[in-house]
UniProtKB/TrEMBL annotation:
Protein name: SAP1
InterPro entries, per the entry: AAA+_ATPase, AAA_lid_3, ATPase_AAA_core, ATPase_AAA_CS, MT-severing_AAA_ATPase, P-loop_NTPase, Spast_Vps4_C
Signal peptide (residue range): none
Lineage of the species this protein comes from: Eukaryota, Fungi, Dikarya, Ascomycota, Pezizomycotina
Keyword ATP-binding (UniProt): yes
Keyword Nucleotide-binding in record: yes
Organism: Trichoderma harzianum (Hypocrea lixii)
Length: 382
C-alpha cells in the first residue's frame, strides 16, 4: 500500500499534471499507462503492485524535475528530494497517547482543510503556519508525522543544517526549491524541527550574513503562501489554483521565546504541548508494558503513574526500557545460558530501581516559563 508520506499523484488527491493543458501529451500517456498497468495487475500480487508503485513514484519525480517551476534550481530540487522528502514511517493518532486538544486543533487546522479544501475557503481558509512548543520529549515531532499521515500529505522534514551550504547563494536556492516543490506536491507539510535554530531573533551584532539571508528568504517564501482570503469566495479557477497551495509550515521548538517576531506572527496557531497528565501517563505505561512480559497489577500501574509525576513521554519510555533490563541485570552472565522462558517477568521493583537513575528532564522553573509564554502567545494542547 502506498504511503501518504510519499510524494505521489493519485486519483484521491487529484493529479494536477493531468489537468494542466500545458503538459506534453506524451507525458500524460506514460503516466496513464503506469496507472493502468498498476490497477490491472494489482490482483496478481502485492509484490508486483509495489514494484509499479516504485516506478510511478520515480517517473513522477523525474517529471517534476524536468518541468520545475520558474526560479527553481534543478540541483537544489534534487537535493530536496533526496534529503528532505520523508518516505514511509507512518504515524497515526492512535500511536500518540493523550494530547486530545492538540489533536483536535491539528485536525481543524490541517487535516480537514487538506482532505476537503472545497469547504475551507474565504474566511475558513486554513492558516499557513502552526507552531508546536513545549518541553522536550512531549510528542511534538510525533504529532507532526501523524498530521502528515492522516492528511495524506507529502512530508518535508528540514532543519537549519538541511538548508545550509558553504557556497554563496546556494542556501537561498534550497529554500526556494523547498517551497516550490511543496507547492508542486501539494498537499504538503514543511516540518521544521527546532525552528529556533533556523528563525531565531535577528540582530545586527554577532549574526553571520549568510544566516540572515537564509532567514530572509525563508520568510519571503513563506509569505507567498499567505493568501488574503477574508471576505471572498473562490470560483472554480481559483479553487483549482488553491489545490496547489495546500501547503503548511509546521514547526516544533523547545525555545519558543527565541523565535523571531516576524516568524512568530506567521504562526497563526501556537499550540502548547505540555507534560503528560496522569491519564496519559497510565495509557503510555500500559502500552509499553504490552511489549514485555511483566507481573504488574493495576495497583502497581497506578503507583507508577504517581511516581512519574513531572516525567515527559520520552522520560517514561526511557524508564520503561531501563526497567525492562532489570530481570537481565540480576542474572549477570548466567543469561547467556538461559532460555527466554526462564527469565522472570518485570515487576514493580524493577521500576523502583530504575527511578533511582532515570529522573525527569524538565524542572519546575522551566515549566513555568512555558506556561507563561503559552498564556501570553499560545494555546494549551494537553
Amino acid at each position: 500500500m502506498d504511503s501518504p508520506l510519499l510524494y505521489k499523484y493519485d486519483t484521491e488527491r487529484g493529479d494536477r499534471y493531468r489537468d494542466d493543458a500545458r503538459r506534453p501529451s506524451s507525458e500524460f500517456a506514460t503516466l496513464n499507462q503506469v496507472d493502468s498497468r498498476s490497477s490491472e495487475e494489482a490482483a496478481e500480487g502485492t509484490a508486483w503492485g509495489a514494484k509499479n508503485d516504485k516506478i510511478l513514484k520515480k517517473m513522477t519525480k523525474a517529471a517534476i524535475l524536468k518541468n520545475l517551476p520558474p526560479g527553481i534550481d534543478e540541483s537544489a530540487a534534487k537535493q530536496i528530494f533526496n534529503d528532505i522528502v520523508v518516505q514511509g514511517d507512518e504515524v497515526h493518532w492512535s500511536d500518540i497517547a493523550g494530547l486530545e486538544v492538540a489533536k483536535n486543533s491539528l485536525r481543524e487546522t490541517v487535516v480537514y482543510p487538506f482532505l476537503r479544501p472545497d469547504l475551507f475557503m474565504g474566511l475558513r481558509e486554513p492558516a499557513r503556519g502552526m507552531l508546536l512548543f513545549g518541553p522536550p520529549g512531549t510528542g511534538k515531532t510525533m504529532l507532526a508525522r501523524a498530521v502528515a499521515t492522516e492528511s495524506k500529505s507529502t512530508f518535508f522534514s528540514i532543519s537549519a543544517s538541511s538548508l545550509t551550504s558553504k557556497y554563496l547563494g546556494e542556501s537561498e536556492k534550497l529554500v526556494r526549491a523547498l517551497f516550490g516543490l511543496a507547492k508542486a506536491l501539494a498537499p504538503s507539510i514543511i516540518f521544521v524541527d527546532e525552528i529556533d535554530s533556523l528563525l531565531s531573533h535577528r540582530s545586527d551584532a554577532g549574526e553571520h550574513e549568510a544566516t540572515r539571508r537564509i532567514k530572509t528568504e525563508f520568510l519571503i517564501q513563506w509569505s507567498e503562501l499567505q493568501r488574503a482570503a477574508a471576505g471572498r469566495e473562490a470560483d472554480s479557477k481559483t479553487s483549482t489554483r488553491n489545490e496547489a497551495q495546500r501547503v503548511l509550515v509546521l514547526a516544533a521548538t523547545n525555545l519558543p521565546w527565541a523565535i523571531d517576531e516576524a516568524a512568530r506572527r506567521r504562526f497563526v496557531r501556537r499550540q502548547y504541548i505540555p507534560l503528560p497528565e496522569p491519564k496519559t501517563r497510565e495509557t503510555q505505561l500500559r502500552t509499553l508494558l504490552r511489549q514485555q512480559n511483566h507481573s504488574l497489577s493495576d495497583e502497581d500501574v497506578e503507583q507508577l503513574v504517581q511516581l512519574t509525576t513531572g516525567f515527559s513521554g520520552s522520560d517514561i519510555t526511557a524508564l520503561a526500557k531501563d526497567a525492562a533490563m532489570g530481570p537481565l541485570r540480576s542474572l549477570g552472565e548466567a543469561l547467556l545460558y538461559m532460555t527466554k522462558e526462564q527469565i522472570r517477568p518485570m515487576d514493580l521493583s524493577d521500576f523502583e530501581q530504575s527511578l533511582k537513575s532515570i529522573r525527569p528532564s524538565v524542572d519546575q522553573q522551566g515549566l513555568r516559563e512555558y506556561e507563561e509564554w503559552a498564556e501570553k502567545f499560545g494555546e494549551r494542547g494537553g
